[in-house]
Specification:
The protein is α/β, with parallel strands linked by helices. The chain folds into 2 domains: 2-186, Leucine Aminopeptidase, subunit E, domain 1, CATH 3.40.220.10; 215-516, Aminopeptidase (3-Layer(aba) Sandwich). Helices cover 33% and strands 21% of the residues. The protein is built from 15 helices and 22 strands. Strands 9, 10, 11, 12, 13, 16, 17, 18 and 20 form a 9-stranded mixed sheet that branches. β14 (353-356) and β15 (362-365) form a beta hairpin. α13 (417-429) packs across α15. The protein is elongated.
Length: 523
């Protein structure tokens, strides 16, 4: 989809659909001006259709040649808070390079969702009307770069389709090919906002592609080749460890999970350094289980059917790195992805086996289906050894998180309150909701082992928290946050800007968080 900026009078733009974002006082402003040009028929007709300007409500009007646009589409944005609120998100107070504050002047969570619903309505209605071009008018006073960025990003996310594995005749032709944002002036901040939206949406859709693609194609080797491709394009340093390298590094937990599969594991490391001197170093780790059968603790058929998604953490981290230099992020970022399958082969790890992680801790494996925390034990301890300022991991770690939070919230927990709140704020700014869970000290004894330093399962309750407590054993003293997003990585039912299937959750939160760390960040 091509996106352009246009400062002309909206009523003079020749497009298939002219979209007017209208609030509770929808009879005023641009709709009133257009109403005069169609002899008062516009307001009367959409009022007859029951339009009140509430968020997400739509009503269209056919112009019959009285305007250059074929249709006028009114989309409600009312009843939500207006953009412009300021969120303050501190960096971890324990950062070696000093306490700083990441400021955001983005919209409130309710307003962000309203703009996303507007963007979704544009794409959906354009599809229904067989429209190839659309122009959107944001109410005067709300046409900030931040708002235009959300609308642009939302439109690109709403247009996402995964059909590359369908035959050519079954693929849907893209309908909305050109989106025009009506602006007061196409100045540098506005053009930069559109560019950010394009990069962020592209990264999110890339993560969606990786997660939607079958595990027969997205193997550990495939992820490693993608990492090399990204490194070349973004000018990153890349290091890929094969099984021999993983063994030499002392990553026994990753090797233990991998030994039942015919697909060799890979440990992926990507490093980004900005052009100027970086004052902060952020490490990202993503679980990269390209298919999870459960190992010898075998899943049932229904649970196994969706397990190509178990590398969503790794996909999110790769996606962030795929646009890191395009967005001119000014902090140093290191990415780590332990990639393997979890299969029940003849050499598979057995319940009761003990593995040794990179930091030397031994782990009794009582359930081979709790494998994500094993591979992350190596990745986190490896990342922590390099002493970044903060460490963040993303993982489809537990089914329990969906039972606790449902399909729209992911869990977050960590050792640094400032880091956790900064990530929650970053998620709010882009419509990705995180809910903090406590690392309950009294539950730590549930993972004590009689034969090793720690065991990989608890006593059957508080599963998401137990997973977090396990991972905390491998981060040393580095400020750390863990995002368990098994609940949100796939949408069973489509919603605004998210078709059915992979959501790409986490990519935008991480990119927003990294942007907020920059001096003078606008959120």
């Amino acid at each position: 989809m091509k996106i352009t900026l246009d400062p002309r009078n909206p009523g003079d733009v020749k497009v298939d659909v002219l979209v007017i974002a209208a609030g509770n006082e929808w009879r005023t402003g641009e709709l009133a001006a257009l109403d005069q040009r169609v002899d008062g028929r516009l307001v009367a007709e959409i009022q007859q259709r029951g339009f009140k300007g509430t968020s997400g409500q739509v009503a269209f009007f056919q112009t019959h040649g009285r305007l250059p646009a074929r249709y006028i589409l009114a989309v409600g944005i009312g009843d939500d808070e207006a953009p412009g609120m300021t969120a303050v998100a501190p960096l971890p107070g324990g950062s070696r390079r000093g306490t700083r504050v990441a400021r955001s002047t983005s919209a409130s969570p309710a307003a962000v969702q309203s703009w996303y619903r507007l963007a979704h309505a544009i794409v959906a209605q354009a599809r229904d009307l067989q429209a190839a071009s659309a122009a959107v008018v944001i109410p005067e006073g709300e046409r900030s770069p931040a708002t235009l960025e959300v609308v642009c990003e939302g439109a690109l996310l709403s247009a996402y389709v995964f059909d590359r594995l369908k035959s050519a005749t079954a693929r849907r032709a893209p309908l909305l090919q050109h989106l025009i944002l009506m602006v007061d002036r196409a100045d540098t901040p506005t053009r930069a906002a559109v560019a950010r939206a394009e990069h962020t949406a592209a990264a999110t859709c890339y993560a969606r592609d990786l997660i939607n693609t079958p595990a027969a194609l997205v193997t550990p080797t495939y992820l490693a080749e993608e990492a090399r491709r990204i490194a070349r394009r973004q000018r990153l340093q890349a290091r890929i460890l094969d099984p021999a390298g993983i063994k030499r590094a002392g990553m026994g937990a990753l090797l233990g999970v991998a030994q039942g599969s015919a697909q060799p594991p890979r440990f992926i490391e990507l490093s980004y350094r900005p052009a100027g001197k970086a004052r902060t170093c952020v490490a990202l780790a993503g679980k990269g289980i390209t298919f999870d059968s459960g190992g010898l603790s075998l899943k049932n058929a229904e649970a196994m059917a969706s397990q190509k998604r178990d590398m969503a953490g790794g996909a999110a981290v790769l996606a962030v790195m795929s646009v890191i230099r395009d967005l001119d992020i000014s902090v140093e970022v290191r990415a780590y992805i332990p990639a393997t399958e979890n299969m029940p082969g003849g050499r598979a790890i057995k319940p009761g086996d003990v593995v040794r992680a990179y930091n030397g801790k031994t782990i009794e494996v009582l359930n081979t289906d709790a494998e994500g925390r094993l591979v992350l034990a190596d990745a986190l301890s490896f990342a922590a050894a390099a002493k970044p300022d903060v460490l963040i991991d993303l993982a489809t770690l537990t089914a329990a998180v969906r039972a606790a939070l449902g399909p729209r919230y992911a869990a977050i927990m960590g050792t640094d309150a400032g880091l956790v709140q900064a990530l929650i704020g970053a998620g709010h700014a882009c419509g990705e909701q995180l809910w903090e869970l406590p690392l309950v000290p009294e539950y730590r004894s549930d993972i004590d082992s009689s034969v090793a330093d720690i065991k990989n399962t608890g006593e059957g309750s508080a599963g998401t928290i137990i997973g977090g407590l396990f991972l905390r054993e491998f981060v040393d003293q580095v400020p750390w946050a863990h995002i368990d997003f098994s609940s949100t990585v796939v949408a069973d039912k489509p919603f605004a800007c998210h078709p059915r299937g992979a959501t790409g959750f986490g990519v935008r939160t991480l990119l927003r968080y990294l942007r907020n760390l920059q001096p003078g960040a606008d959120g």
